[in-house]
Amino acid sequence: MTKLLASRALRLAVAAGLTGIILWKSDPSAIARLAMAASPAWLLWACALVLFDRALMAWRWVLLLRPLTADAPPPLGAVMRVFFISTFVGTALPSVGGDAVRALSMRRHAVPGATAVASVAMDRALGLVAILLLGLASLVAFTAPVPRGVFVVLLLGGLASLGLALVIFSDAVASLAGGLAARLPGAWVRRVSHSLLEAVRSYRHHHGILATVTAVSVGVQILRVLQAWCLGRALGIELALTVYFVSIPVILLIMLLPITISGLGTGQAAFLWTFGAAGVSRPEAFALSVLFIALGIVGNLPGGLLYLSGGDAPASSAASPATKSTIS
Q1: How many CB atoms are closer than 10 A to CB 76?
Q2: At what angle do helices 97-105 and 76-89 cross, to 10 degrees?
Q3: DSSP string covering 14-62, please?
Q4: What pTM value is reported for the model?
Q5: CA angle 146, 12, 87 (to 5 degrees)
Q6: What are the Cα distances from residue 72, in Å, to 5, 106, 318?
Q7: Do 106 and 116 form a contact (C-beta atoms < 8 A)?
Q8: I need a labelling partner for 230 at 20 to 30 A (CA). Which of 23, 40, 275, 311 fits?
Q9: b/e per residue, 276-295, with b = 16+ CB within 10 A?
Q10: How crowded is residue 77: how many other Cβ atoms within 10 Å of its Cβ?
Q11: CA distance 231 to 226
């Protein structure tokens, strides 16, 4: 627990430090003026879109759970409740914290730990694939200024996605991964690794589900681009929608790095880096980044209402993924 608290404190300190430095260099008074003059109508459109994307994300996870729980499917209402509560709880955790809460909470509904973790891991992986697909397609299809290094970010994300795909669909790579897992120290660690590998590998028989979830994931990312565009319009930023399609996927990849809380700090840096290349001023890019992150928190608020109403609220043990068993 002490290590977990120290890790959270460090990430919070990094987030606060990065945000503070970038804010100081971005003219706080100009940022405040932009925020005060933001158009309520465009902000409401962005809020509507974020609630829609959360619903799509929940449906995506339901689809991924179905083939792994066909013999004893958990109640649909319980799955949806766990999803929305985990997004709310994950607001104050690193990007993978909400995923850990989600996997652990499913144990209450007789879903084996390996199955739950595999479904969450695949959900996260296909979300990453969708960001990469949209980012690459946008770079090819649209003409928009991009900063140097964008292709490096997309390449690194692509390599991570390729690695998971090989584990799932390649018997040789899966065998290699299994051999490495068998050499891990501790019988429990080896057992957990083997169970998780087998659960993830089971998706290789469900091509239709994977294709559907990937398509839904691309839809989610398009909604996020539109959300950012609405926020930009609210701030009076006059940029073509194509610039957002090129920039937002890269920003999302950077914000996924589990080094701060809710993408604070890294998100501001990514917005200034990408939108700065398109001629957006530092105050405008910083204000846009803050609104974009705040919008994500707004999308998590329905989970907060469910959390306060009780029921499937995660237990305290669920908030400690680093120190508790994730496999039953």
Answers
A1: 10
A2: 150
A3: HHHHHHHHHHHTT-HHHHHHHHHT--HHHHHHHHHHHHHHHHHHHHHHH
A4: 0.80
A5: 75
A6: 36, 13, 23
A7: yes
A8: 23
A9: ebbebbbbbbbbbbbbbbeb
A10: 10
A11: 9
Q: What is the Cα–Cα distance from 196 to 182, expressed in whole angstroms? A: 13
pLDDT tens across 111-169, in order?
887 788 888 888 888 888 889 889 888 888 887 777 777 777 777 777 777 777 777 77
- What integer pLDDT is reported at residue 323 of this predicted model? 31
Tokens of 267: 């998100």
What length does the chain have? 328
CA-based Rg of the chain, rounded to a whole angstrom? 20
Q: Output the six-digit token pair for 239.
A: 């940029």
Task: List the one residue out of 150, 315, 290, 151 whose CA is nearest residue 232.
Answer: 290
Residue with tokens 């209450």: 108
Contact of 98 with 87, CB cutoff 8 Å: yes
What DSSP string runs through 117-166?
HHHHHHHHHHHHHHHHHHHHHHHHH------TTHHHHHHHHHHHHHHHHH
User: What pLDDT, on a 0 to 100 scale, did the predictor assign at position 243?
Assistant: 92
Distance CA(146)–CA(80), nearest Å, equals: 38
The two three-digit tokens of residue 189, written as one number: 């660690």
Q: How far apart are the first and last CA of the chain?
A: 21
Rounded to whole angstroms, how far apart are CA atoms 12 and 3? 14
SS3 56: helix
pLDDT of residue 227: 97
194 closest CA partner among 212, 177, 209, 173: 177
